[in-house]
């Protein structure tokens, strides 16, 4: 085992050397490699064929400029990215993120995570991710349309329903997907519904796609509770963020009997002991696009500017905002306040120190590559419907999503047991996701 761990350590040093300055990507790779030693001991063929080495190197990295004109006529410039990481299981699949923090390291971290997340769903989809350092906040619909059209004018040549299928992520919702799809259709002269997911219901979208990531995280969490003879009934829940994932995670928590007492945005957090009013929250964030302080004013709830939502005592924490938002200090406060369950609704929102502290304290912890796989799973269901020119009911699609999340939960636990880490969802998710991709790569030769 020590020899294997040494080889994996050397591989990690090689990743650092080849990808300098990409801290988030380094973190994601290390977290997976730390789980793989028992796999390599049992299956030395993965090391002999350099599968792990190859899986850490994207198949393709695309960077391009995106010029566009704002409403005043000024030409603005952004950078676009698409990292097509691994296609062993199917076409690259993963969202587009429009946010000022986006750079190659963020996109590679997200794409690397997407490989294993997509594998865990059991669906035939590979891993990829993309986006831009474009900031849509405060811009008009016309400015966002012009940016999206310019972005797709370059991206279109790299994607397709059998090649690479983007979706939304932070900063990319139904509006942006519509503009992107319209430009793709215009350039290619094809109504290729399956080239993008997250589309509107009237033109090829899937029911439950909007809700899927948030619902999926809560379905996974519900399985964790059930495995321990518990339920959501009467549980206090804190959700970070107030975007798509957070809103619909809160909605499903309340449907299952829990009470969401706090949520946040980049300006601060709200504490609402009566339970978050989801209709008002959706109106404030999705319709009016206001700060969460407006919700507090209209609801008569407590607004805390700045600070950390993890100061609010809860039974269950659902980090649903962004990467590395929950650090060691926040984890320590949650543990001291009696939090028993944490499930990542966002991509890698907990730092390595936070994950370690949760493990040491016996907090049941679900990593994002398992718990937030509901979004991409439902995207794959959307692709199925597009391929068959079909449309499913909300109830049927939600049942499919719940079944997929149950399968991911069980696969994680069974794999953790098999490899000597009972109850460890992190190890189970990493190994189960890796093995399916690794076997496909072995079967397809040195590619």
From TrEMBL:
The record marks 169 as: Important for catalysis. Residues 206-445 form the Glutamate/phenylalanine/leucine/valine/L-tryptophan dehydrogenase C-terminal domain. GO terms for molecular function: glutamate dehydrogenase (NADP+) activity; nucleotide binding. Transmembrane segments: none annotated. Keywords: NAD, Nucleotide-binding, Oxidoreductase. Belongs to the Glu/Leu/Phe/Val dehydrogenases family. This is Glutamate dehydrogenase. It comes from Tsukamurella strandjordii. The lineage of its organism: Bacteria, Bacillati, Actinomycetota, Actinomycetes, Mycobacteriales.
